[in-house]
Amino acid sequence: MAEKLVIIGNGMAPGRMLEELFEKAPGLYEVTIFNAEPRVNYDRIMLSPVLSGEKTYEDIVIHDDAWYATHGVTLHKGARVTEIDRQAKTVTSANGITASYDKLVIATGSLPFIIPVPGHQLPGVLAYRDLDDVEKMLEISERKGRAIVIGGGLLGLEAAYGLKRQGMEVTVIHLMPTIMERQLDPAAAYLLERALTERGIEIITKANTKQILGADKVEGIELEDGRVIDGDMVIMAVGIRPASQLAKDAGLAVNRGIVVDDGMMTSDASIFSLGECAEHRGICYGLVAPLYESARVLADRLTGGHAEYHGSVVNTKLKVTGINLFSAGDFAEAPDREEIVLRDASAGIYKRLVLKENRIIGAVLYGETTDGSWFFDLLKKQTDISEMRDTLIFGQSYQGGSPLDPMAAVAALPDDAEICGCNGVYKGKITSTITGKSLTTLDGVRAHTKASASCGNCTGLVEQLMALTLGDAYNPAAVTPMCTCTELGHDDVRRLIKAKGLKTIPAVMQELEWKTSCGCAKCRPALNYYLVCDWPDEYADDYQSRFINERVHANIQKDGTYSVVPRMWGGVTNAAELRAIADVVDKFEIPLVKVTGGQRIDLLGIEKEDLPAVWADLGKAGFVSGQAYAKGLRTVKTCVGSDWCRFGTQDSTGLGIRIEKFMWGSWTPAKLKLAVSGCPRNCAEATCKDIGVICVDSGFEIHFAGAAGLDIKGTDVLGLVKTEDEALEHIVALTQMYREQGRYLERIYKWAKRIGHDEIRRQIMEDPDKRRAYYERFVFSQTFAQVDPWSERVSGKDKHEFKPMATVGYSAAAAE
Description:
The protein is an alpha/beta fold. Helices cover about 30% and strands about 20% of the residues.
């Protein structure tokens, strides 16, 4: 029978411990978690990007509800534990829930320190510790105004940056002469202060707060020197203290934090402690890497192991876009220490290494932090650097007498070198996971190791490890810039468009620091698609940012003429429609009429100036654009199905028509072709389409991610549903998932390979809430998308596009 493991707290440390525990010994424990917050586990070190608008809450969730369900974990949300009964071995929450335990883990985290100056209880005085704090800041920031941040440490500066990005004026008040004095020497602090000032953040050092001003809410602060600063919000970012009172009340040994041994056990053999509330060898850690290291030790102990935690050496990175900063160890001056300093004022680079007995004991890097992991590894291992002292400051690439290729430098890192400080991931873990799970994408590595999944500073190193491990099999397309106008890839651009609420192409280019004034032929169509998809009710489609076929709603041919493909729902037509097509062919002397592979009729050889008239005549017969030119839904190919075919199991024609009428007009990252076959004989060739349906006796088998062009690929099965309504909902949800996550010009089979077929099945087939949400977002967007572009142009919209350029005469007499 499984033992009962109860965890108080649901932060990052216990979350990592459970991951390790479930990997080592699934089913060993019946796990119950009490979480004081009303939500699942999320990445707290990513609160700063959420505040700045670069990420959303959904982006930083570590374990969603499905994860807890999969592992059989009982999670009590919004349940703050108020009592531990060590005799009865139970815990009880404020909302009356009691659970018994065989083993208990206390992971209550820390509490922010609020300076008890007059006015500290006014509405608008906030800490910066959890998502609730961030949501309150965002709410106040909607009114703009000024935010005052008390504390120029790591969290205070990240809060200041985030609020500035939200449009507020920001002033940072710091007691010490330089900011981040615990992590930076004065020279690096000066560079950082200058960079933040250039970003519009005011920093006042050597300043002490006397009182917070205001009657019913914050109106400003007064400093000890008499200065008054008006403001609408005050953020206290002056430190934390372990949340250890619960343990103290239970009679456990507590100093500053809950005292634990090298196995993370408290003074009670059945109770362990983990995270910021724990005190190990007199130290309470507040950074994530040591919490993860101790989490691994505790997971081993809970499975009968004997691992020990001996403390951690930590490093610091600032999560402010465009500022590269690394700090580790002790960099204070002392008689027995030496230092090596490199300054490049024009490039904004500063590097300082502090040495003692030919070993690195401290490092500060600003502007160029690539070698941070290498220096940190030398520091932790206390490596003797005597033989490389003369070139040490230049980094790993310059050791050994001649410059190393950067890839060789990464290859030289030992397996225990830390690559991702946020998540405590080492080189060996990344390379073994890439090999063991046959990973080929950065997204895959992030999903399975968490490396590069948080702040992203280690992304370059992870990519180099992938290239080394995979060789020619590595495809870095996922992280290459979308064009030469930007350093950002498609995924980052798309994420930032949504996170920052960017709703025009000029806004995107301004906020994301485009290198060109107006973009180029690669980025403008992509940006136009992302904005159309993300803001269907607000963004005005910019047809000048589309390719020529989409601009004129017809396919250009090699002789400069165009082809027109009317939409035939499900490939079905009638005599009246065929007569109308024949009349148009005769009237405009169209040279070729061709039946397409998608069961449509293509009219080829139409002059550009004739397009509106051709559309007008076709429109009178009831035709709308077949979108054969579009990065959108093209066709839904069907067979005759059960109404006519003796092998048909379902009405494939009717379903195909229903799908096409429901989905036409929708823009997608690349062209989208569907098919519905009435039986497994598959006459409509559904198993090589982007999305296909095979009708069977028991319902509808949905397929996806096929290809029959430059790449030949059969589909995979998404799943089986019983009714037409279910089939429509699943197909629409799948399409919307692709619309929201696909990169521009990425066909669905390439997107599915990148995301993972199992993940797509999980979201569409196994998560009804997520599926319904995708479906409803597609339906909403269709209210703006189902406008026939042919009829719009017939009515005169963009009529200049179809007028031939006038021939302009010139004569010497006219010039005179």
